[in-house]
Amino acid sequence: MKFRKKPVTIDAVQWTGENWEEIRSFARDSGGASLLEGPYPNGEVRVKTLEDGTGELQVSHVASRGDWIVKGVRGEFYAVKPDIFAATYERA
User: Fold this and answer.
1) What are the residue ranges spanned by the domains of the chain?
2) 8, 38, 64, 65, 88 from 41: Cα distances, Å
C-alpha cells in the first residue's frame, strides 16, 4: 500500500549553534520545562521526544548545527536534518 502524508503546518527553528536561547524557549512543554539539553562542546543539543522512554530504555535524539527542531502535531519535538527538512516542508 502507498500513503500520502497529510498536509500539516508545523513550527520549527533551525539550530545554528548560536541561537541556544531561541531554541530553548521554543522547545518547552506545556508546563514550561525545556525539552532540550546542551549545547555540548561539539555543538550538539539533545532533544527530548515522545520516543525517549525512561531509565535504561532512554534514547538520545541529537541535533547538530544546521538541523531543524520541529514541533509535531501532538506537541512533541524532534530534530530533522536540513536535506530531509527541505524535501518535506515548505514555508507556509
Assistant:
1) 11-88
2) 35, 8, 11, 12, 30
